Task: structure prediction
Amino acid sequence: MVDSHGGKARRLTAHPARDMRPVFSPDGRRIALVSDRSGRPQIYLIDADGGSLRQVTFHSEGSRVEDWYPDGKALLTSGLRDAFYGRYPDRLFRVEVTRRAAERPLFDGTAYQGNLSPDDRRLLFVRE
Result:
């Protein structure tokens, strides 16, 4: 972590695994990131001040964080799911961060690189 104007960088994680794709929560207090420390890429949360990671996703194929829902209670995620029926078999999901719950598919179709509008009424994504 470093101020956008520069300064000394402060390390938030230290692990031999790859920690990647950090996304700040809407209030800036938490960071969702992807790490392969459990074997497959899974999503973890960490306080923006640092501290220990809390695993949020547990799917055997792994998951990637795409965006936060504006209320900060859930993440927009993507992951390889179901049968491979195209060049980009990823699907988009909602995953609650306030409690452990199953991921919920947003629609039945392939999609990735999703972003939510600030009012949570629209979803922009890439399909194939």
